[in-house]
Amino acid sequence: MSSSAPGTTPHYFVPQPSRHPAFAAFGLFFVIFGAANWINGVDWGKWSVAFGLLWLFWVLFGWFGDAIRESETGQYGRKIDLSFRWSMSWFIFSEVMFFGAFFTALWWMRSHSVPALGGVDNALLWPDFKAVWPSVQAGATASPGGIVEPFQTMTPFWLPTINTALLLSSGVTLTIAHHLLREGKRGPTVMWMWATVLLGLTFVFVQGYEYFHAYSELNLKLTSGAYGSTFFMLTGFHGFHVVVGMLMLLFITIRLMKGHFTPDRHFGFEGAAWYWHFVDVVWLFLYTLVYWL
Description:
Number of strands: 0
Number of helices: 7
Distance between the termini: 41 Å
Radius of gyration: 23 Å
Order of helices and strands: HHHHHHH
């Protein structure tokens, strides 16, 4: 995070013992315990999940607030700034591996699993099976076993293309805001940050409408075979990351309005920007591999 004054600790800041990790674990327990019961038909599981999430959000609000106060009172020096940069770098790397796994699953099903199911070994079981990916050949979405309802695939026009323009534009506005912050122009920085947040929010609403269109008009659902499951897993997890990134940018914007960050010390801003640009790059891969191919 950043500080409005140079760090006063000569070596490495050691925080006081904190209750936050234990309290966060307490909330996560109720989230996981409730979710496990909810998916198994226990009605009170959803209330356990709700309680756990509210508790966790309350803990994170206090935890992040303590970190911001420590930063703004000058307790973070150069070594802390360096540790934050390494931590964010490794976090984004883990996210690269996360999405890489889903993209690999998509490639494996298209290039290996589906052709194998159409081989000679399965010809007697499913003689009418078309061993092509649904987006490649119209009519290849019917299930020979009758377990998947016929559906239409999602094309890149026009909602996904609009969302691509929104995300790319948000990357531009965020970069402009970063340059303005480095020049010490706080007012214009805040303006461009609000523009970035609004573009991200618009993306989320457009994707929500895309899901409504998929379910109501295309009959494309999470249960629509391998295509439906990979489509919703990839776009859904990406949408979740957009929401997280948008919230990060929102809180950074609020901190800017409160006078936090300086032209020389603003890693809180930079970390959120790194994450947002990562989300942009993932979308470009997703837009190409899921919607076009």
